[in-house]
Amino acid sequence: MSGTEHLLTERHGPTLVLTLNRPEAKNAFSIPMLVGLHDAWAEADADDDVRSIVLTGAGGAFCAGMDLKALARGGTGGGFAGDEGASHSDSDEGGGGRREDPYRARLAADPELHWKAMLRQHRPRKPVIAAVEGVCVAGGTEILQGTDIRVAAESASFGLFEVRRGLFPVGGSTVRLPRQIAHTHALEMLLTGRRYSAAEARDIGLVGSVVPDGTALKRALELAEAVNEAAPLAVEAVKQSVYRTAALSEEEGLARELEIGWPIFATEDAKEGPRAFAERRPPVYRRH
Length: 288
Fold this sequence. Notes:
With about 290 residues, this protein is α/β, with parallel strands linked by helices. Helix content is about 40%, strand content about 15%. It has two domains: about 5-230, 2-enoyl-CoA Hydratase, Chain A, domain 1 (Alpha-Beta Complex); about 230-280, Lyase 2-enoyl-coa Hydratase, Chain  A, domain 2.
């Protein structure tokens, strides 16, 4: 699976690992990174051999969001405000020269591409596990909300700084965050723009677990392996049901759950699971 200079792709068996690769800028978003993400999500969905996806960052950081120095020079960048430490060198708003022309053409051809890349307008059918080291702020915290399982290193930090910069978190946070964590915690994060430690992020439910520095990717791959051992059709149906019923009433949600879940019982994988259990052997699932 191909990547770009700002997005590395690597296969670990059935797991696709995506690494945001702009460490000199704390992995602040760039056009090559967004195009790479867009294509990686689509390719992973189309490849039945991919059962899980891990999203992480290079150089001890996850993602600092939008490049503020580029924004100050007049760029738009989709409205993602980055950490004040992010560099503007080689950013999506300048310095790319000819190399970025093909990527800009992709953006021009699909005005929604950056939203799909940010998981705002697209939800992969495969589970996405975030492995966070270092800064995960502004747009980094926004793309985090599009992932399914989240692991953070002890020194990781989180936050939505937009209101402190006169901006708005248009990556989906005003909609998603209050649905993912308690109302008061969501509003505190959105309205104060303060920085949160990994422990605080775990306490409010933004991440699921905190591990020693340098081990977030290892833990994420362990979780991915556990997902990979389960039946892929069942895994994808469970994920689909969780998100498609989230905004429904309980009665409507339960009806929709049956529509999504009941067909799984007619698959060959649903026969293989109990048979393997009875025979005391690992199941062999074939997606049918």
